Fold these 2 entries.
Entry 1:
Amino acid sequence: MEDFLFAFLNWDIVTQAWPILWRGFLYTLALSAMTVPLGLAGGVVLALLSTSGPRLVRLLAAGWTDVFRAIPPLVLLVFLYAGLPFAGIDVGAWGAVALGFLLNTGSYYGEVFRAGIESVPRGQMEAARSTGLSRGQTLRHVVLPQAVRNVLPDLVSNTLEVVKLTSIASVVALPELLFQARQAQNATYNATPIVAAALAYFLLLWPVVRLVSRLENRALAGR
Amino acid sequence: MTHSPPIIDARGLWKKFGGLAVLKGVDLSVAERELVFIIGPSGSGKSTLLRCLNRLEEPDDGSIQVDGIELLSPKTDLNAARRRIGMVFQSFNLYPHMTARANVMLALRKVLGQDKDQAAQLAARALDRVGLAERMDHYPAQLSGGQQQRVAIARAIALEPRVMLFDEPTSALDPELVGGVLNVMRELRQDGMTMVVVSHEMAFAKAAADRVVFMADGQKLEEGPPAQIFDAPRHERTRAFIRQIDRH
């Protein structure tokens, strides 16, 4: 028991590693603040293309979504960071993360938005168009607000996954929370920083998890 | 009937879904201020015909003029044309995320470009016309089916269309709610609105229609004043259909 506490819940280590962990936490927040909006924007564009574009565009969007959901995000990120420079394209660590998340999580968000758009009855589009609204106006004011509402729990749920996935930025040497925790672990020969990192993720994401549950309950009640 | 040029003039409309011809060269002309009822068995093409008149359905062949606009011409600004053609649907199709008033305001603002105050005022007036001034701030889910359909009518008439199309406006309503919607339609008619109605409300047709069109198998089989179609139909199919409807 003594050994366990020493190795995993060592308060001295926490106080020592605190500044490093805090910096990692801030990086994780910054990475999330970049990747979530990018993924959402990419997702909306993909969903609109795959539901409302001409036939060829719809097929291309569907294929794109398939490809980037099938490629593991870690592989994609390493390729963008370490592979592209061989083609003379160096996007840097932040660039690789931005691009990788745009491609990967954009595709996941795209599928969520697509399900949302398809859940809006055709009659909504018809009613709006019959009053003279253009296709774009109809999507913006009538279809998308309902689509988002219908898939809100899935959107938030997906966002949780995205925040957790930002830990892969450690492979391109961005000092996010997990990266920093491992640095601290290596420096102290103690696993407590990893436990502290897990706790930090939990404190960050638990309110969001609760939010998903509440949204899901409300969606069930509204049915 | 008046002798002014028709406000709707559709000729030779063809529409196929897959291999199935739903409209087989249908003509329909409607005079200003006229109320035309289209009846017929399900699958006769009556709803498709109506939906061609504002191009929610794209005819494969034929021509449609509404208020002097060539609806099928590629040069036509379809969105501009559609605001002169109001449409009311069987399932109301109100926007569930907006209040009754916001439902009416959307096109006033985005299509006619009115500012918020002006649109709010006109929306209130339109809702008052359908007897729902009190319910302006309710969401569709808080309204009965009949009230929702009246909001849908307000949404259409607020744009001051030249023509109103009704696609089975009372079919989704409980019987006790039908009257309110028909009353609103009756008032519209008295105000001189040109209306094309697809519906099974035969009593309303008898009382209010100028002309009844009977369709079957994608063709116009017979048309005339209600008295003629209901009491002395010429076609055997028309007779059979009227008999069946009357039994209900």
Entry 2:
Amino acid sequence: MFIRSTGVISAQHSFGNVPFLENPVEYNTNRLTCIEPDYKDIIDPKMIRRMSRIIRMGVAAAIGCLREGNTDVPDAIVTGTAYGCLQDTDVFLSKMVEQNEELLTPTAFIQSTHNTIGAQIGLMLKSNRYNNAFVHRGFSFESAMLDGMLLLMENAAGNVLVGAIDELTDHSFAILERFGLYKKNPVTNTALYSTNTRGSIAGEGSAFFLLAKEHTAGDYAKLDGMHTFYKPASIVESEEQVKLFLESHSIDINDIDLIITGRNGDTTHDAVYNQLNRGIFNGITTAGYKHLCGEYPTAVSFALWLAANCIKQNVIPSSLHSTSNTGKDIKRVLVYNHYQDIHHSLLLLSAC
Amino acid sequence: MSDLKKQIIEQLNLQDIKPEDIGDDQPLFVDGLGLDSIDALELIVLLQQHYKIKLSNAEDGPKVFKSVRTIAEYITAHQNQVA
């Protein structure tokens, strides 16, 4: 199966017809916020008024993806989100408290559900085809991908719109910061991996992909496979999982031209990547990506966008800070990501 | 009626619309202002929040929410009852 088109809204200039990470945005903070497009060019103003920020980001990325893929209505829409529409949930719960559980406005409640974005896309496209949403913490996007891939493999669909959406609100940032997920002080995102402290930088994003069964000219990349594993007992087990995944695709680590890892600047979380870099990944060009988009449960969707672009454009942008850039063609990319050392996933892409 | 229009704009988050853009007798739903069933629920909440008026009969909805004028007349009629 193939990645036909993408639509990504992130903390970088990634949406629309922009050069691939030519002008990376540098931040000095512990919280990255998405750069949003002018939605009036993308969404009917009558619909925008009722949409909270994450819904706008999700719908716009999806529409951008479909436009790029010259597809009016996909055969299926599958979304993944860990947190859902937090801003609407904030509004709804706050009003419950403020108004003693009386006179609650319906819009925030209706739109606070995790499947809102998939549903809004379906409504906008007037599509009553397959529409599903997955909420599995750090596996939310991978679950959506798996569903989309299965639909294609079983010939239940010829193309599937798969997307991931997660937002940060002031409340969620404050709560997750208290859990120790983020750095205590602002950091320069480009120096994230040398901070040598606990915590990462918070992020958010919306990324959609049109997956297609048949190859057409202009596709980004071939999606060879995906694998997830949960709470590996040790780094050795993670290494074994990587080896088994590559073996299942009849390739060796030396066949990989670029490995994109989910390093996030947290000394504990990065231990697995550091050890693999010294071991099985040694000698292969590796790059991080969370300094560009921040850490969030569906951040791996941003990595998939990066991998697809690296292959399509045959380039590793300097902003990825890769370990080396040998100048050889980027024909095969492995993405290895984990969220909170709980949800681990591998994605393998190759040139079409 | 100007205050009511402001409240409607705020409650329904009608972006780029000013009170003077809404005619007193302009239909609010479908072809007029383009409101829908979710907006009707928001308007019911607005009546309760701002005027302590409960729409007792749901079937009255289309008649009451036909235009700003009909809402204003309903408020006037029922505020007297509340008082």
